[in-house]
Write a structure and sequence with these properties.
The chain is 29% helix and 22% strand. The protein contains 16 helices and 20 strands. The longest helix is centred in the last third of the chain and has 13 residues, at 463-475. The structure holds S-adenosylmethionine.
Length: 493
Amino acid sequence: MPQHLDTAEAVRRRVAPGIAQKHKSKFGQFLTPSSVARFMASLFPTSAARTCRLLDAGAGVGALSCAFLDRWAAGGFEFESVEATAYEIDDDLRSHLAQHLAGYQNLTPRIIEGDYIELTTADDLFSKKQTSGYTHAILNPPYKKINSDSPHRLALRRVGIETVNLYSAFVALAVAQAAPGGQIVAIIPRSFCNGPYYKPFRDYIFKHAAIHHMHLFNSRSKAFKDDSVLQENIIIRLERDGQQGDVTVSTSTDDTFADLVTHTHPFDRIVFPYDAERFIHVPTSPEKTVIELSPAICCTLSDLGLKVSTGPVVDFRLKEHLRDMPEEGTVPLLYPGHFSSSAATWPIEGMKKPNAIKRNADTEKWLYPNGFYCVVRRFSSKEEKRRIVASVVEPGIFEGMPVLGFENHLNLFHENRHGLPEALARGLAVYLNTTAVDENFRRFNGHTQVNATDLKLMKYPSRKNLIRLGEWAMRQPSPTQHQIDAKIEAMSA
Ligand SMILES: C[S@@+](CC[C@H](N)C(=O)[O-])C[C@H]1O[C@@H](n2cnc3c(N)ncnc32)[C@H](O)[C@@H]1O
């Protein structure tokens, strides 16, 4: 019985370290370790079909096809014959690929030289009957940004695919080329789950396929540890034109899959029914979070009459108007560095960032009236304990300053571009600083980045309850995490 995955793995170990970093980035080359390839192949359901048309786009040295074919050769599929189509752009890898796919019985390999996107977008994918489409696709596509006016972007647009990265383009094309009921298993970065730029890709997937399985590695970097990829990766299984039902979510710490845990979730926990952005959540435990369970936490931001925006001052675009310290004609410019957990400090002498911005015709439109605001920093480091860190802007610190600048690394909650009532700003900050909110955010979001869209989609207590929380915070100037958490639990009881 051929076990070509072992050969492909040996070649990967030998070849991958010798590929120059520049070449790797140019082609998005991160070859899949055999344990991950085998796991991916195991995710395909068994099938009674006699023939299989397999696609491996961006096939590298063929680890994924080999994992699939090894399973078949070991009796894991009933097919009598397989036609395996593998696209690979890199001449050096293609020669290994050809060797690895030779030698399976009843297999017809089709190794296609060239650019998968260019070659497949030449036809209108949906106008043709898909009866001869691929029954299976197994992919670890290249990861690379697609620029907005690049030939790839335009070619994809011609076949109705609007997307920003090669990986999502490959998955969308594989879905397009699949036969009805075709199964697609892909390992890709998690960024498509909630980036606003990936909304058209998500819409495309939901329109043409069902999501049946998602696997998450609990530790970043563990799926491709030999290649030091730091992206958070996810393995998904899609079914072309499939009926969307419950979704299986599995997790493991790393690519040994030693502690594999599997749960099934209804689809409305994966994509929330009210969510126009259609974020894909990956709940790692069947228990609902306090936030999901609490009937007291059910308001959207618009129910509260509030908006959240990214700080509009992009410092490198307004460089000439920035000043290290306040001077005549300037107003405060606020960065995350001005906020600590307890209070805001401004100005900070010797800070690496400017403290002030000139108020003039060029900057006026980016400034907000002085007032109470709740701000949330957009970036936290991976090591930082919390993802969501909220602070209150107090107008008293900026006495005599009619307007304030908020820099782009902050999100700010406002009421139609104006400040909030003090108690509401404080209540929001207390709520956002609870452990429950942080846990809820982490469970559904792999980013260390907190975008305004993430905050827009969260559920909040009512305005009345937030004001009550704020009033409590005003009587309790430095509440402990324990006290803050107890307040939310009491509200939810
Ligand atoms: C992330 S690697 C994965 C390789 C292989 N699937 C695996 O799992 O080991 C992506 C592969 O796609 C190839 N590639 C990059 N751009 C391509 C394109 N436009 N068309 C076809 N292959 C491409 C790269 O050379 C690389 O081998």
